[in-house]
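Check this.
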Amino acid sequence: MAMIRQPENFPETVKEVRRQLALSQEELAHALGVSFATVNRWENGKTVPSKLAQRQFEQFCAQMKEQGKLV
């Protein structure tokens, strides 16, 4: 997912992943091991994820793609 590596697209990417998986911000936060506030700030463009959080998000997306839950 090359677009994840571009921070300016990260908020849209997070929203789109949540939309496709029908997850709330809280549910996505739990799946990633971060707080609801963190996901909320990512989506609002207030913060960018740390390298670790970004890697976790990418791995989560890869797992969801393997399971056919994410396009």
User: Anything to note?
Assistant: The radius of gyration is 11 Å.
